[in-house]
Amino acid sequence: MKMLLENASARVGGRQILSDLSAGVDSGDLVAVIGPNGAGKSTLLKLMAGVLAPVAGRVELEGVSVRSWSAPERACRMAYLPQFRPLTVSLLVEDLVSMGRLPHRGLWKPLSVEDRKAVSSAMDRMEISHLRGRDATTLSGGELQRTFLARCLSQGSPVLLLDEPLTGLDIGHQLSLLALLEDLAREGRTVVWSVHDLRLAAEHSGMAWLMDQGELVAQGATAHVLMGDRAKAAFGVGISRSAEGDWRFG
Amino acid sequence: MLGTALLVAIAAAVLWGSSDLSGFHSLSALWQGPHSDEMTARIVWQVRLPRVVVVALVGAALSVSGGAFQALFRNPMADPSLLGIASGGSFAAVMVLFHLPQAPVWFLPVAAFLGCLATAILLVVLAGTGGAPSLATTLLTGVVLGSLFTSCTALALLLSDEYQLRQLVFWLSGGAEARGWMHVALSLPPIALGTGLLWGVSRWLDALSLGEDHAQSLGVPLERARGAVLVGTALAVGGAVGVCGPVGFVGLIIPHLVRPLVGSGNRALLPAAALSGALLLVLADFAARVFLPAGIQLGVLTSLMGVPFFLRLLARERRVA
Question: What is the CATH number of the domain that holds B40?
Answer without folding.
Answer: 1.10.3470.10
